[in-house]
Amino acid sequence: MIYHSLVGLVVWVLATLGFRTYGQFFFTTDGLMQAILFIVAGPALWLFMVLYLGTLRVLPENRALAAISFVLPGMALDALVTANFQVVFPNLDMSLDGKFGALMLWAYAAMLFGGYSSDRRVRKQLVVRLQDVAAP
């Protein structure tokens, strides 16, 4: 699981650098743009986690734990980033600090749900297959 934590840390660094460099182009005070960002981010990050776990062929019983391991470093560091929003993101409007925190919670929840839902889905498929094999 340390591997997933390291990958999560690298992804967090890249995402934070992306926000630091290009955040002002898509993370604005415009309410419509914020709504679009929230609507797109949830399903996109859910899909990212499902594909990540599937690509690495994480065992079904380990998918939820792998998702937790992936997300934890970013969650911990984003707590610090949100508390020091203006220092980390001088290119963004200071009034966006609460929206940033909400977006990060939404993103991490979507990724955790990706790990959890893919875990449950795969387990359900395995149970169905086992029942089919066991049935005469």
Architecture overview:
The termini are far apart. The chain contains five helices and no strands. α1 packs across α3 (63-83) and α3 (63-83) packs antiparallel against α5. The model has no long low-confidence stretch (mean pLDDT 90). The chain has one domain. Helix content is 83%, strand content 0%. With 136 residues, it is mostly helical.
How many domains, as an integer?
Answer: 1
Strand count: 0
Low-confidence stretches: none
Q: How many DSSP H or I helices?
A: 5
Task: Note the beta-strand portion.
Answer: under 5%
**Cα gyration radius (Å):** 18 Å
A few lines on this structure:
This protein has 136 residues and is mainly α. 83% of the residues lie in helices and 0% in strands.
Keywords:
single chain, mainly alpha
Strand and helix layout:
Blueprint: H1 2-26, H2 31-55, H3 63-83, H4 85-88, H5 97-134
